[in-house]
Amino acid sequence: xxxxLPPPALRLKLDGGALAANWRALGxxxxxxxxxxxxxxxxYGLGADFAVPVLRDAGCEDFFVAHWAEVPALLDHVPAxxxxxxxxxxxxxxxxxxxxxxxxxxxxxxxxxxxxAEAGGGRCDLMVDxxxxxxxxxxxxxxxxxxxxLDVDVLHxxxxxxxEPDNPLNARQLARWxxxxxxxxxxxxxxxxxxxxxxxxxxxxxxxxxxxxxxGGVPCAALDGVIAQVVTPQAALLQVRDVGxxxxxxxxxxxxxxxxxxxxAVSLGYADGYLRCWxxxxxxxxxxxxxxxxxxxxxxxxxxxxxxxxxxREGDWLDVAYALPAAATTSGLSQYELLTLLGRRFLR
Length: 348
Ligand SMILES: *Cc1c(COP(=O)(O)O)cnc(C)c1O
Hints:
- With 348 residues, this protein is of the alpha/beta class.
- It has 2 domains: 203 residues, TIM Barrel (Alpha-Beta Barrel); 92 residues, Lyase, Ornithine Decarboxylase, Chain A, domain 1 (Beta Barrel), CATH 2.40.37.10.
- The chain has 11 helices and 18 strands.
- The longest helix is centred in the middle third of the chain and has 15 residues.
Protein backbone atom coordinates (compact mmCIF):
# COMPACT_ATOMS: atom_id res chain seq x y z
CA UNK A 1 0.00 0.00 0.00
CA UNK A 2 1.21 3.49 -0.80
CA UNK A 3 1.27 5.96 2.07
CA UNK A 4 -1.39 8.67 2.11
CA LEU A 5 -0.37 11.92 0.44
CA PRO A 6 0.00 14.92 2.73
CA PRO A 7 -2.37 17.80 1.87
CA PRO A 8 -1.11 20.16 -0.86
CA ALA A 9 0.11 23.70 -0.19
CA LEU A 10 -2.71 25.25 -2.15
CA ARG A 11 -6.45 24.88 -1.74
CA LEU A 12 -9.74 26.48 -2.70
CA LYS A 13 -11.73 27.82 0.20
CA LEU A 14 -15.30 27.16 -0.96
CA ASP A 15 -18.30 28.75 0.75
CA GLY A 16 -21.21 26.33 0.34
CA GLY A 17 -23.54 28.66 2.25
CA ALA A 18 -22.80 31.43 -0.25
CA LEU A 19 -23.36 29.08 -3.21
CA ALA A 20 -26.74 27.96 -1.81
CA ALA A 21 -27.71 31.57 -1.03
CA ASN A 22 -26.76 32.68 -4.56
CA TRP A 23 -28.92 29.91 -6.07
CA ARG A 24 -31.88 30.85 -3.84
CA ALA A 25 -31.49 34.54 -4.73
CA LEU A 26 -31.42 33.72 -8.46
CA GLY A 27 -34.46 31.48 -7.94
CA UNK A 28 -36.38 34.34 -6.34
CA UNK A 29 -35.27 36.68 -9.13
CA UNK A 30 -36.50 34.11 -11.68
CA UNK A 31 -40.07 34.82 -10.55
CA UNK A 32 -42.49 32.08 -11.60
CA UNK A 33 -39.69 30.12 -13.29
CA UNK A 34 -37.53 27.61 -11.43
CA UNK A 35 -33.79 28.14 -11.39
CA UNK A 36 -31.60 25.31 -12.65
CA UNK A 37 -27.80 25.41 -12.63
CA UNK A 38 -25.09 25.39 -15.29
CA UNK A 39 -22.44 23.09 -13.79
CA UNK A 40 -20.36 22.52 -16.92
CA UNK A 41 -16.56 22.65 -16.77
CA UNK A 42 -16.54 20.98 -13.35
CA UNK A 43 -18.95 23.59 -11.97
CA TYR A 44 -16.91 26.44 -13.48
CA GLY A 45 -13.77 25.02 -11.88
CA LEU A 46 -15.07 24.81 -8.31
CA GLY A 47 -15.58 21.04 -8.48
CA ALA A 48 -18.83 19.27 -9.32
CA ASP A 49 -18.42 17.15 -6.18
CA PHE A 50 -18.65 20.34 -4.13
CA ALA A 51 -21.24 22.33 -6.08
CA VAL A 52 -23.78 19.73 -7.18
CA PRO A 53 -24.72 18.40 -3.70
CA VAL A 54 -24.96 21.96 -2.33
CA LEU A 55 -27.25 23.03 -5.18
CA ARG A 56 -29.30 19.82 -4.91
CA ASP A 57 -29.79 20.33 -1.17
CA ALA A 58 -30.81 23.95 -1.81
CA GLY A 59 -33.59 22.61 -4.09
CA CYS A 60 -32.10 22.69 -7.58
CA GLU A 61 -33.53 19.99 -9.87
CA ASP A 62 -32.01 20.81 -13.27
CA PHE A 63 -28.29 20.60 -14.03
CA PHE A 64 -26.55 21.45 -17.30
CA VAL A 65 -23.15 20.20 -18.45
CA ALA A 66 -21.47 20.68 -21.83
CA HIS A 67 -19.66 17.37 -22.41
CA TRP A 68 -20.64 13.74 -22.05
CA ALA A 69 -17.50 13.20 -19.98
CA GLU A 70 -18.95 15.57 -17.39
CA VAL A 71 -21.98 13.34 -16.74
CA PRO A 72 -20.53 10.67 -14.38
CA ALA A 73 -19.44 13.20 -11.74
CA LEU A 74 -23.06 14.42 -11.55
CA LEU A 75 -24.59 10.95 -11.31
CA ASP A 76 -22.84 10.48 -7.98
CA HIS A 77 -25.17 13.17 -6.60
CA VAL A 78 -28.35 13.58 -8.65
CA PRO A 79 -30.65 11.34 -10.70
CA ALA A 80 -29.93 11.08 -14.44
CA UNK A 81 -33.31 12.69 -15.18
CA UNK A 82 -31.99 15.93 -13.63
CA UNK A 83 -29.10 16.21 -16.12
CA UNK A 84 -28.99 17.65 -19.65
CA UNK A 85 -25.93 17.75 -21.93
CA UNK A 86 -25.70 21.03 -23.84
CA UNK A 87 -23.41 19.90 -26.66
CA UNK A 88 -25.79 17.11 -27.62
CA UNK A 89 -24.75 13.91 -29.40
CA UNK A 90 -21.97 14.23 -31.96
CA UNK A 91 -21.69 10.47 -32.56
CA UNK A 92 -23.92 7.41 -32.33
CA UNK A 93 -21.87 6.43 -29.26
CA UNK A 94 -22.93 9.68 -27.54
CA UNK A 95 -26.60 9.01 -28.28
CA UNK A 96 -26.31 5.40 -27.08
CA UNK A 97 -24.65 6.60 -23.88
CA UNK A 98 -27.42 9.12 -23.22
CA UNK A 99 -30.05 6.42 -23.59
CA UNK A 100 -28.16 3.89 -21.48
CA UNK A 101 -27.59 6.36 -18.64
CA UNK A 102 -30.87 8.25 -18.90
CA UNK A 103 -29.61 11.83 -19.22
CA UNK A 104 -31.19 14.20 -21.78
CA UNK A 105 -29.20 15.33 -24.79
CA UNK A 106 -29.82 18.88 -25.97
CA UNK A 107 -30.55 18.51 -29.69
CA UNK A 108 -28.84 21.37 -31.52
CA UNK A 109 -29.14 20.51 -35.22
CA UNK A 110 -30.92 18.30 -37.75
CA UNK A 111 -28.02 15.80 -37.80
CA UNK A 112 -28.31 15.55 -34.00
CA UNK A 113 -32.07 15.04 -34.27
CA UNK A 114 -31.39 12.22 -36.75
CA UNK A 115 -28.72 10.62 -34.54
CA UNK A 116 -31.10 10.70 -31.59
CA ALA A 117 -33.97 9.19 -33.55
CA GLU A 118 -31.72 6.47 -34.99
CA ALA A 119 -30.49 5.60 -31.48
CA GLY A 120 -34.10 5.05 -30.46
CA GLY A 121 -34.95 8.55 -29.27
CA GLY A 122 -36.73 9.36 -26.05
CA ARG A 123 -37.01 12.48 -23.96
CA CYS A 124 -34.57 15.22 -24.95
CA ASP A 125 -34.06 18.97 -24.77
CA LEU A 126 -33.77 21.16 -27.83
CA MET A 127 -31.78 24.35 -28.50
CA VAL A 128 -33.08 26.87 -30.99
CA ASP A 129 -30.73 29.54 -32.27
CA UNK A 130 -32.27 32.96 -31.72
CA UNK A 131 -29.45 35.10 -33.07
CA UNK A 132 -26.18 34.05 -31.50
CA UNK A 133 -25.24 31.75 -34.38
CA UNK A 134 -23.44 29.29 -32.18
CA UNK A 135 -25.41 26.09 -31.47
CA UNK A 136 -29.06 25.43 -32.17
CA UNK A 137 -31.66 24.76 -34.84
CA UNK A 138 -32.97 27.58 -36.98
CA UNK A 139 -36.61 28.57 -36.71
CA UNK A 140 -37.22 27.02 -40.17
CA UNK A 141 -35.72 23.70 -39.13
CA UNK A 142 -38.28 23.38 -36.32
CA UNK A 143 -40.86 22.45 -38.95
CA UNK A 144 -38.84 19.40 -40.06
CA UNK A 145 -40.78 16.18 -39.36
CA UNK A 146 -37.71 14.76 -37.56
CA UNK A 147 -37.84 17.67 -35.14
CA UNK A 148 -41.61 17.68 -34.79
CA UNK A 149 -41.40 13.99 -33.78
CA LEU A 150 -39.00 14.67 -30.88
CA ASP A 151 -40.16 14.29 -27.29
CA VAL A 152 -38.94 17.70 -26.06
CA ASP A 153 -38.73 18.43 -22.36
CA VAL A 154 -37.00 21.84 -22.34
CA LEU A 155 -36.99 24.14 -25.37
CA HIS A 156 -33.87 26.29 -24.91
CA UNK A 157 -32.33 29.30 -26.47
CA UNK A 158 -29.28 31.24 -25.28
CA UNK A 159 -28.69 34.98 -25.02
CA UNK A 160 -25.57 36.48 -26.55
CA UNK A 161 -25.45 39.73 -24.55
CA UNK A 162 -27.66 39.33 -21.50
CA UNK A 163 -25.19 41.22 -19.30
CA GLU A 164 -25.94 44.34 -21.39
CA PRO A 165 -29.57 45.23 -20.58
CA ASP A 166 -29.63 47.96 -23.24
CA ASN A 167 -28.38 45.76 -26.07
CA PRO A 168 -31.19 45.48 -28.67
CA LEU A 169 -30.08 41.88 -29.37
CA ASN A 170 -31.90 40.80 -26.19
CA ALA A 171 -35.37 41.79 -27.43
CA ARG A 172 -34.68 40.28 -30.87
CA GLN A 173 -33.68 36.97 -29.29
CA LEU A 174 -36.71 37.05 -26.98
CA ALA A 175 -39.01 37.44 -30.01
CA ARG A 176 -37.41 34.51 -31.84
CA TRP A 177 -37.51 32.26 -28.78
CA UNK A 178 -41.19 33.18 -28.30
CA UNK A 179 -41.90 32.24 -31.92
CA UNK A 180 -40.07 28.94 -31.45
CA UNK A 181 -42.23 28.16 -28.42
CA UNK A 182 -45.28 28.41 -30.66
CA UNK A 183 -43.71 26.26 -33.38
CA UNK A 184 -42.78 23.16 -31.41
CA UNK A 185 -44.42 21.10 -28.69
CA UNK A 186 -42.42 21.09 -25.44
CA UNK A 187 -42.97 20.80 -21.71
CA UNK A 188 -40.81 23.68 -20.47
CA UNK A 189 -39.02 26.64 -22.01
CA UNK A 190 -35.74 28.26 -20.95
CA UNK A 191 -33.80 31.29 -22.19
CA UNK A 192 -32.07 33.11 -19.36
CA UNK A 193 -28.52 32.66 -18.10
CA UNK A 194 -27.41 34.71 -15.06
CA UNK A 195 -27.67 38.07 -16.80
CA UNK A 196 -30.88 37.05 -18.59
CA UNK A 197 -32.66 36.57 -15.26
CA UNK A 198 -32.31 40.31 -14.65
CA UNK A 199 -33.91 41.26 -18.00
CA UNK A 200 -37.41 40.71 -16.63
CA UNK A 201 -40.25 38.20 -16.45
CA UNK A 202 -40.63 37.89 -20.23
CA UNK A 203 -37.21 36.23 -20.34
CA UNK A 204 -37.91 33.69 -17.57
CA UNK A 205 -40.10 31.05 -19.20
CA UNK A 206 -40.38 27.96 -17.00
CA UNK A 207 -36.72 27.43 -16.14
CA UNK A 208 -33.59 29.58 -15.93
CA UNK A 209 -29.97 28.45 -16.39
CA UNK A 210 -27.71 30.59 -14.18
CA UNK A 211 -24.03 29.73 -14.06
CA UNK A 212 -21.50 32.45 -13.29
CA UNK A 213 -23.63 34.23 -10.66
CA UNK A 214 -24.04 31.01 -8.67
CA UNK A 215 -20.30 30.96 -8.22
CA GLY A 216 -19.84 34.58 -7.19
CA GLY A 217 -19.71 36.28 -10.57
CA VAL A 218 -21.52 39.58 -11.04
CA PRO A 219 -22.21 39.83 -14.78
CA CYS A 220 -24.43 42.92 -14.62
CA ALA A 221 -24.97 45.90 -12.34
CA ALA A 222 -28.43 44.65 -11.32
CA LEU A 223 -26.78 41.76 -9.45
CA ASP A 224 -24.42 44.03 -7.50
CA GLY A 225 -24.82 43.41 -3.79
CA VAL A 226 -27.02 40.34 -4.40
CA ILE A 227 -24.30 37.77 -5.12
CA ALA A 228 -21.81 36.57 -2.52
CA GLN A 229 -18.23 35.45 -3.17
CA VAL A 230 -17.93 31.64 -3.16
CA VAL A 231 -14.29 30.91 -4.02
CA THR A 232 -11.09 32.09 -2.35
CA PRO A 233 -7.84 30.48 -3.52
CA GLN A 234 -5.40 29.99 -0.66
CA ALA A 235 -1.71 29.15 -0.86
CA ALA A 236 1.01 28.46 1.68
CA LEU A 237 4.26 30.37 2.06
CA LEU A 238 7.15 28.14 0.98
CA GLN A 239 10.00 30.45 1.92
CA VAL A 240 10.63 33.87 3.41
CA ARG A 241 13.75 35.92 2.70
CA ASP A 242 15.17 39.38 3.26
CA VAL A 243 16.21 41.18 0.09
CA GLY A 244 18.51 44.21 -0.01
CA UNK A 245 17.73 47.51 -1.74
CA UNK A 246 18.44 47.30 -5.47
CA UNK A 247 18.21 43.51 -5.75
CA UNK A 248 16.11 41.91 -8.48
CA UNK A 249 13.23 39.63 -7.57
CA UNK A 250 11.96 36.74 -9.68
CA UNK A 251 12.45 35.87 -13.37
CA UNK A 252 14.16 38.57 -15.40
CA UNK A 253 14.34 40.78 -12.31
CA UNK A 254 11.31 42.74 -13.46
CA UNK A 255 10.98 43.97 -9.86
CA UNK A 256 13.90 45.71 -8.19
CA UNK A 257 13.57 46.14 -4.43
CA UNK A 258 13.30 49.92 -3.81
CA UNK A 259 14.46 49.36 -0.20
CA UNK A 260 15.42 46.45 2.01
CA UNK A 261 12.33 44.27 2.16
CA UNK A 262 11.01 40.85 3.11
CA UNK A 263 9.79 38.67 0.24
CA UNK A 264 7.68 35.53 0.46
CA ALA A 265 7.51 32.73 -2.13
CA VAL A 266 3.98 31.35 -2.32
CA SER A 267 2.92 27.95 -3.67
CA LEU A 268 0.79 29.25 -6.54
CA GLY A 269 1.70 29.86 -10.17
CA TYR A 270 0.43 30.06 -13.69
CA ALA A 271 0.19 26.27 -13.85
CA ASP A 272 -2.54 26.68 -11.22
CA GLY A 273 -4.38 29.28 -13.30
CA TYR A 274 -2.80 32.28 -11.59
CA LEU A 275 -1.65 33.67 -14.91
CA ARG A 276 1.24 36.01 -15.62
CA CYS A 277 -1.19 38.88 -16.06
CA TRP A 278 -1.22 39.08 -12.26
CA UNK A 279 2.51 39.93 -12.23
CA UNK A 280 2.95 43.21 -10.37
CA UNK A 281 -0.85 43.55 -10.04
CA UNK A 282 -2.25 40.79 -7.84
CA UNK A 283 -2.68 40.86 -4.09
CA UNK A 284 -2.55 38.19 -1.45
CA UNK A 285 -3.84 38.82 2.04
CA UNK A 286 -3.27 37.64 5.55
CA UNK A 287 -6.14 38.91 7.68
CA UNK A 288 -6.21 42.63 6.97
CA UNK A 289 -2.62 42.76 5.74
CA UNK A 290 -2.31 43.30 1.97
CA UNK A 291 0.67 41.58 0.33
CA UNK A 292 1.24 42.82 -3.25
CA UNK A 293 2.54 40.43 -5.90
CA UNK A 294 6.04 41.51 -6.96
CA UNK A 295 7.89 40.44 -10.08
CA UNK A 296 6.76 37.77 -12.53
CA UNK A 297 4.36 35.02 -11.59
CA UNK A 298 6.19 31.77 -12.40
CA UNK A 299 4.86 28.30 -13.11
CA UNK A 300 4.64 27.09 -9.53
CA UNK A 301 5.34 30.18 -7.46
CA UNK A 302 4.38 33.77 -6.92
CA UNK A 303 6.45 36.27 -4.91
CA UNK A 304 4.83 38.73 -2.53
CA UNK A 305 5.98 41.74 -0.54
CA UNK A 306 5.62 40.80 3.14
CA UNK A 307 6.14 44.36 4.45
CA UNK A 308 2.60 44.51 5.84
CA UNK A 309 2.99 41.22 7.75
CA UNK A 310 6.69 40.66 8.53
CA UNK A 311 5.91 38.01 11.16
CA UNK A 312 4.69 35.53 8.53
CA ARG A 313 6.66 32.28 8.27
CA GLU A 314 6.98 29.21 6.07
CA GLY A 315 3.77 27.18 6.16
CA ASP A 316 1.49 30.15 6.89
CA TRP A 317 -1.52 30.36 4.58
CA LEU A 318 -2.42 33.39 2.51
CA ASP A 319 -5.70 34.27 0.78
CA VAL A 320 -5.59 35.35 -2.86
CA ALA A 321 -7.69 38.48 -3.51
CA TYR A 322 -10.26 36.94 -5.88
CA ALA A 323 -13.55 38.83 -5.59
CA LEU A 324 -14.54 38.24 -9.21
CA PRO A 325 -15.68 41.67 -10.44
CA ALA A 326 -12.61 43.41 -8.99
CA ALA A 327 -10.27 40.58 -9.99
CA ALA A 328 -11.53 40.77 -13.58
CA THR A 329 -10.87 44.51 -13.72
CA THR A 330 -7.36 44.13 -12.30
CA SER A 331 -6.29 41.10 -14.34
CA GLY A 332 -8.00 41.79 -17.66
CA LEU A 333 -9.43 38.25 -17.54
CA SER A 334 -13.19 37.63 -17.60
CA GLN A 335 -14.93 36.43 -14.45
CA TYR A 336 -15.61 33.16 -16.31
CA GLU A 337 -11.92 32.71 -17.12
CA LEU A 338 -10.90 33.49 -13.54
CA LEU A 339 -12.98 30.55 -12.30
CA THR A 340 -12.46 27.98 -15.03
CA LEU A 341 -8.67 28.51 -15.04
CA LEU A 342 -8.28 27.30 -11.46
CA GLY A 343 -6.03 24.28 -11.82
CA ARG A 344 -5.98 20.70 -10.67
CA ARG A 345 -3.37 21.13 -7.95
CA PHE A 346 -5.81 22.93 -5.64
CA LEU A 347 -7.34 20.83 -2.90
CA ARG A 348 -11.06 21.39 -3.40
C1 LIG B 1 -22.88 28.37 -19.76
C2 LIG B 1 -24.30 28.49 -20.12
C3 LIG B 1 -25.23 29.08 -19.25
C4 LIG B 1 -24.81 29.80 -17.99
O1 LIG B 1 -24.41 31.11 -18.34
P1 LIG B 1 -23.89 32.17 -17.27
O2 LIG B 1 -23.59 33.37 -18.09
O3 LIG B 1 -22.67 31.58 -16.66
O4 LIG B 1 -24.97 32.37 -16.28
C5 LIG B 1 -26.56 29.03 -19.60
N1 LIG B 1 -26.96 28.46 -20.75
C6 LIG B 1 -26.11 27.91 -21.62
C7 LIG B 1 -26.63 27.32 -22.89
C8 LIG B 1 -24.76 27.91 -21.35
O5 LIG B 1 -23.90 27.39 -22.23
